[in-house]
Amino acid sequence: MDRWQGKVAIVTGASSGMGAATAVKLASAGMITVGLARRVERVQALRDNLSAEIAARLYPFRCDVSCEEDILKAFAFVEDKFGGVDVLINNAGTYKCVDLLAEDNSDVLRESLAVNVLAAAFCSREAVKSMKRRSVAGHIILINSIEGHKVPVYPGANLYPAGKHAITAITETIRNELRTAGTKIKVTSVSPGLVKTEMIDVCGTIAYGGEDITSLPMLQPDDIADGILYVLGTPPHVQVHELTIKPVGEPV
Predict the structure, then answer these.
(1) Which residues, listed in sequence order, are joined to residue 224 by a DSSP beta bridge?
(2) pTM of this prediction?
(3) Mean pLDDT across the chain, nearest whole number?
(4) What is the C-alpha separation between 219 and 221, in angstroms, rounded?
(5) Best CA proximity match to 242, nearest among 107, 146, 136, 117
(6) Which residues 6+ apart lie within 8 Å of 113 measured at CB?
(7) 56-75 pLDDT, tens per residue?
(8) Which one-letter DSSP state was computed for residue 76?
(9) 216 near 251, Cβ under 8 Å?
(10) CA atoms of 100 and 120, how far apart (whole Å)
């Protein structure tokens, strides 16, 4: 991580779970880290619990990634204050347990599409614009899921698996465009299995692959953050295309 010392990272969905863990680890590793979140007070509380040295590198910024205008304001803040972004962690996600064919579910489906798909595309677009303008060999990481590669059987999935499959495609589309443009910008999909986050709490005790989800082996948010640091720590000529991280014994 030495080459990222003093460089600027943006983490979306930094208020809890994997986003919060990643924001702390990046700031601890020496990166100026901007934590975007709708619940920005949670990022502020997270910063308040850090040592003064690390806290000085963590900048909370209110951003609802379902709103493109908020995304543009966040990236404009980073440009004005720090000159641009070097690393983007597309982590923000949402899930509500509603069947795809359930009646009156339009708002849930639109939110899923806006947060899980469009936000990643918009944030990546703005990050690449900043990186290309400064000829930076930056890195874009998209938090995917094992559901982005295979659709499991469980009630209430709605557009979540479809959104993660979209992230798989978006990652490869970005990679093709960056290669065609002749940049040195890296892009990586990180696909966790089950992780103990607030999203799991939303799931409750729904059957997941025929088993109660709360009884299955799970990763911790720090496990995913450690994977992200591994990906960022590879040499400039090494690009990790896909990193799958699962807990030992997960049957999904």
Answers:
(1) none
(2) 0.95
(3) 95
(4) 7
(5) 146
(6) 159, 163
(7) 999 999 999 999 999 999 99
(8) H
(9) yes
(10) 22
Q: Which residues contact 247 (CB under 8 A, 6 or more apart)?
A: 193, 194, 217, 218, 219
The number of CA neighbours under 13 Å toward the Cβ of 62 is: 3
Q: pLDDT tens digit string along 125-155? A: 999 999 999 999 999 999 999 999 999 888 8
Tokens of 110: 């639109």
Share of the chain above pLDDT 90, in %: 89
* Nearest Cα to Cα of residue 44 among 33, 52, 53, 55: 55
> What are the start-end ranges of the H helices in the chain?
17-28, 40-48, 52-55, 68-82, 106-113, 119-133, 160-180, 198-203, 221-232
Which residues are CB-neighbours of 147 under 8 A, at least 6 positions away? 160, 161, 164, 165
Give phi and psi for 124, each to the nearest 5.
-65, -40
Residue 224: per-residue pLDDT = 98
Q: Please, what's the b/e burial string for 188-207 (b: 16 or more CB within 10 A of its CB; e: otherwise)?
A: bbbbbbbbebebbeebeeee
DSSP 136: -
Taking the mean position of all CA atoms in its chain, how far away is CA 209? 25
Q: How far, in Å, are 3, 92, 119, 141, 186 from residue 164 at the CA level? A: 30, 12, 12, 14, 20
Catalytic residues, by residue number, are 160
| 84 and 136 Cβ atoms separated by less than 8 Å | yes
Q: Do 184 and 79 form a contact (C-beta atoms < 8 A)?
A: no
| Cβ-proximal residues to 133 (8 Å cutoff; 6+ apart), any chain | 84
